[in-house]
TrEMBL record:
This is MCF2L factor. One of its GO terms (cellular component) is cytoplasm. The keyword Nucleotide-binding does not apply. It comes from the Eukaryota. The gene is Mcf2l_0. GO terms for biological process: intracellular signal transduction. Signal peptide: none annotated. Residues 167-289 form the PH domain. Coiled coil: none annotated.
Length: 289
């Protein structure tokens, strides 16, 4: 923040800033100042003498840690901007002054790495504190961190949905997302398809919200020689208030059915494992009840 972000306002360096970067500080750095302020409270350091207070520290800051979700959601925009102007003289000059071996993009990745490190540290602490006072709180803190990582991960997929006419933020909380084989069976007149097994399934990426289930098709695009970025083009949606669920499909314990409007439309969904299927069913059940 001091060696790069502040320097973008330095009059003597203005002429070195590429035009593509003008007024784009917020895009490049995201809410890094907010993350910096949060960590500047040194709360974890206060637990050095009393490690049993550590778990409480995480639980107390559960809401605050959502700032990482915001940071990660902005990351694709930040990376695109960096690809555009990362090799400019301005950044080279800042790096030279700081005497850093690594360029700025390596540091902009740190928050993403940091949010995934906490759960590893908490797991290690749990190993060392079996059945001692505070173990339950550590377990709760770990569950909280895993939850935050899941919601960061889900929201990264969610921002890649294209072609949905409405506003995804109005669909309620994003509970689950993932890829499945899907067969459809629609009652159109009397020529109802009897034997579904003969037909090739569609690959669909499902997003389960409290109000809606979205079916999307995953597309992977190569961005000028960089890693593939996935996007999800919207295909159709089902209102959760009008769906029903059949937990078991004959012949395959990884399949379940979601049906719409009294079985007018039936979607047979095949998960990659029985565990995954059961997780989805229990989330869908919660929504339906």
């Amino acid at each position: 923040l001091q060696g790069y972000a502040s320097e973008m306002d330095n009059p003597s360096l203005l002429h070195l800033i590429p035009s593509a970067l003008q007024n784009k500080k917020e895009i490049l750095f995201g809410n890094l100042p907010e993350i910096y302020e949060f960590h500047n409270r040194h709360e974890i350091e206060n637990c050095i003498e009393n490690p049993e207070l550590l778990a409480r520290c995480f639980l107390k800051r559960k809401e605050d840690l959502q700032i990482y979700e915001k940071y990660c959601q902005n990351k694709p925009r930040s990376e695109a901007l960096w690809r555009q102007c990362g090799d400019s003289i301005f950044f080279q000059e800042c790096q030279r002054k700081l005497d850093h071996k690594l360029s700025l993009d390596a540091y902009l990745l740190k928050p993403v790495q940091r949010i995934t490190k906490y759960q590893l540290l908490l797991k290690e602490m749990l190993k060392c504190s079996k059945n001692s006072e505070g173990t339950a709180e550590l377990e709760e803190a770990l569950a909280t961190m895993l939850d935050i990582i899941k919601s960061v991960n889900d929201s990264m997929h969610q921002i890649a949905i294209t072609g949905y006419e409405g506003d995804v933020s109005e669909l309620g909380k994003l509970l689950m997302q993932g890829s499945f084989n899907v067969w459809t069976d629609h009652k159109k007149g009397h020529n109802k398809v009897k034997d579904l097994a003969r037909f090739k399934p569609m690959q669909r990426h499902l997003f389960l919200y409290t109000k809606m289930l979205l079916f999307c098709k995953k597309r992977e695009e190569n961005t000028d020689g960089h890693e593939k970025t996935a996007s999800y083009s919207f295909k159709n949606s089902l209102k959760m208030s009008t769906v029903g669920i059949t937990e078991n499909v004959k012949g395959d314990n990884k399949k379940f059915e979601i049906w719409y409007n009294g079985r007018e439309e039936v979607y047979i969904i095949q998960a990659s494992s029985v565990e995954l299927k059961n997780t989805w069913i229990s989330e869908i059940r919660k929504v339906l009840t």
